């Protein structure tokens, strides 16, 4: 299967996220300056920003991994059971590493507070 299109999509998304991360960093400097007179407000703003940063950085990481898998030729296969990840799922979540069944199983594990990376 040809993943050129997926790859292009991922690269575009990566650019978008990188710009977003740079943007939040720029905002941070602004907020620090503005918030000097109001500690509480500054704290609140940085909480929100940290959440954004974490989400974007996590996505960025997943995108990089997906791109590496495309290059390695094992993109589109479940990292857990080896079955093909459905095309619909990949369309919705281009950097999915697990098929829908295993992803649901992993959510199960998350609830038991186990680290899925250990498996
Ligand atoms: Zn699976």
Topology, element by element:
Layout lengths: L3 H31 L4 H34 L14 H6 L7 H12 L8
Helix pairs in contact: 1-2
The structure holds zinc ion (ZN).
The site of zinc ion has 8 residues, from helix 4.
Question: Summary?
Answer:
The protein has 119 residues and is an all-alpha fold. The chain has four helices and no strands.
Fold and architecture overview:
This protein is mostly helical. It has 2 domains: 1-75; 77-119, no CATH class. 70% of the residues lie in helices and 0% in strands. It contains 4 helices and no strands. Helix 1 packs antiparallel against helix 2. The longest helix has 34 residues, at 39-72. Residues 78, 80-81, 83, 98-99, 101-102 line the site of zinc ion.
Rounded to the nearest angstrom, the radius of gyration is: 18 Å
Overall tally of structural domains: 2
Structural class: mainly alpha
Mean pLDDT: 81
Shape: flat
Helix proportion: 55-70%
The low-confidence parts are: none
Note the main sheet: none
Q: How widely separated are the two ends?
A: 27 Å
Tell me the total number of β-strands: 0
Order of helices and strands: HHHH
**Tally of helical runs:** 4
- Identify every distinct bound molecule in the structure, by name, code or SMILES: zinc ion
**Share in β-strands:** under 5%
């Amino acid at each position: 299967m040809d993943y050129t299109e997926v790859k292009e999509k991922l690269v575009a998304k990566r650019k978008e996220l990188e710009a977003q991360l740079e943007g939040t960093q720029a905002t941070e400097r602004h907020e620090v300056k503005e918030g000097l007179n109001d500690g509480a407000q500054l704290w609140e703003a940085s909480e929100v920003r940290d959440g954004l940063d974490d989400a974007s950085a996590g996505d960025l990481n997943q995108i990089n991994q997906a791109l590496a898998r495309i290059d390695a030729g094992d993109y589109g296969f479940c990292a857990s059971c080896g079955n093909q990840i459905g095309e619909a799922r990949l369309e919705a979540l281009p950097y999915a590493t697990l098929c829908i069944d295993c992803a649901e199983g992993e959510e199960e594990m998350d609830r038991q507070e186990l680290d899925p990376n250990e498996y």
